[in-house]
Amino acid sequence: MSIHTTVWLVALTAIFFSSSCISSQCFTNFSPADYPSCILLSPNVSMHWVVQNGTITWAIDVDGVWDWVGVGISEGGMLGADLAVALHDFDAHRWTAADYWSADFVTPQLDSQQDVSLVSISRQMHNNNFHGSTLVAMRRPLVTCDSAGQDRPVLNDTRQTVVFAYGIGSFSYHGPTNRGQAEVTFLPNNSFSASAANVSQPALQTLDIRMPPFTVPTDPTTYQCVNLPVPADAKYHIYSYEPIIDNGPLVHHFLAYACRGSSPPPTQLNQSYNCLRDMECEDFYMGWAPGMYKYEAPAEAALAFGNGTSTRYLVLQIHYTNLEGVAGQNDSSGFRLYYSSTLKHYDMGVVTLGSYGIEVPPGVSSWSTQPNMCPPGCTAQLAAGSGGVVLVDSFYHMHQLGRSMVTRHVRDGVELQPLGSRDFFAFDYQSPVNIPTGTRQLLPNDTLITTCTYTGVGRTSTTRFGLASYEEMCFNFVTYYPYNPNITECVEATEKGVATCASSEVLEQIERADDTQAAVQAAVQSGQMVPVPAKFTFRPYQPTCVRSAPKPASGSSGSSLSDGDVDDDDDEDGDAKEEEEEEEERRHKRNVGGAVAAILLVTAAGAVAIFIVYRTMKKKKQLEEEQHLFEKYNPNSILVPVLGAGVVGSSSDPANGGGKVFGKDNGYSDTDTYYVDKKISSTTSSELVAGRGGGGGVGM
């Protein structure tokens, strides 16, 4: 081997390790003419998509050269994850796509019903270095009607959690960095998107609502609060907010409560205090728990504060969990608000649903609360008016034993689609669930029924409602508009046969009254507490699933493609081309082997360098071949029909022409559910449990 060759190999190795990464961008490698919608899932991953004839095609652009790429819909992480995965078959030198499913944080398994097909695949280099892109397009029906329940439908005008991962070698654990998730709306309402596209975003101001520097006690559970002012020189709307996490291992969650009136709460502003059992303001305003990211208000409404509103002060409450008793830990977590005096059409509010009646027996695999009713007498007040109110998000909240949670929606004796659900609840993934379009409108005299399910495995005593991490909760904080300031909680007190239907301030006054019974009677007469029907019957929700597109051809769980191919049934290369490529590969291996042998003769101490050079040359040759194929089969030439024009680069692009979307069967019984003696009796209910617990306001 000549000295020039040796120098070239060393330089090549240096380039391999020193080249900088190239960030993924929308429409760099996929055309907006083929995929009119795109969103950056992370700095390294962009997802494009198009909807046509009842299918959605995802086109993924990942920085780097990878051997498998997966993307799908879940409840957060691998919880209930429905995945489309493209994999490189090293032996066959081909790529396949397959449909995978995972109910928990485990390795996904192949679905019993395969619904994914591979559209195109290409891996390419950038600027002759070894940092390139992996470009994968996969197609699936919007609704599959998977009889095993292993698929999630792509919902219309509903935000869903998208998860992604990629890796080297065979399909396996992706590691802590090659993964992520984001909130995406695939099928937005067309008329809404068109109008929103013409509205410019106002200049936003920022406001940090944070705990002043605080040393976390060594106690297992601490609730610390601070009272903070908000600007009151004008009326403002909060366009978005995001968490500021200062000491992640100790922060269990945090909330902001609104204080009513123009007077500040009792404790001095900006001075923290313990609030485990006593809150100075109790109207739930916003919250954060693990799994939540930046929250964006809907286009029509937002949380309000300032002049002309009842909110001029907020209480930030942080729940710290220090089970190890670590000393000397400081924190200053909280919220960052993005707000403007440019107001949206409506003020948005929050109403709390759920149950205080929690008594999880030790050791049981599954136990559910008595379904808790927000009755017609309360929704008649909350949704007063001809159009009712629009429900936006369900923020389902439980603690460590929680396994699933749902709020059911009944109108005129017929159950509608639920207000979203958490079928695979985990405390680390509690992002709000966007309420589906079919159940988004709440009308007067509708009924909402909330049920929480837990496991008692690992506990040696009964677990009840409480604020501590080892205790449990069952709350659904529902955002809606227009805001009704008179009602912030609608929770059934089962032992009294009534449900609350008032603000937290009024309910606190009732609890502290000298004569509680008289206060309850007065509240019932004023409509602040409403009777729960002794008997309540309705026809359960039974969606009829209609598959939106035909199943892939038998064996196509992987349509099989080579690098650079597009699924256009073009086989013009034929066997001769394959034989030529195989011969070229054999010649390449002989050349590589000769180079390695020559290096071994130069120095025995260069074993590690030789291995690197061998892998580098092999990868370079492979990428050169892939680049050649990519130039011939450019994914921009994929012939997918173009949908109506939208906002380029936005996850809210309109998607015309998609098939009608139906929710999948949620497994409800076909027998009626009814109340008897103030109990709910159905296949989904459990034994009657105690009612509201005591102590403080609604915590988490």
Automatic annotation (TrEMBL):
Entry-linked CDD domains: DOMON_DOH
Domain named DOMON: residues: 43-167
Sequence similarity: Belongs to the copper type II ascorbate-dependent monooxygenase family.
Sorted UniProt keywords: Disulfide bond, Glycoprotein, Membrane, Signal, Transmembrane, Transmembrane helix
Segments passing through the bilayer: 592-614
Top-rank taxon: Eukaryota
Region Disordered: start-end pairs: 547-590
Upper lineage: Eukaryota, Viridiplantae, Chlorophyta, core chlorophytes, Chlorophyceae
Ranges of compositional bias, category Acidic residues: 564-584
Signal peptide stretch: 1-23
GO molecular function annotation: copper ion binding; dopamine beta-monooxygenase activity
InterPro entries: Cu2_ascorb_mOase-like_C, Cu2_ascorb_mOase_N, Cu2_ascorb_mOase_N_sf, Cu2_monoox_C, DBH-like, DOH_DOMON, DOMON_domain, PHM/PNGase_F_dom_sf
Protein name, per record: DOMON domain-containing protein
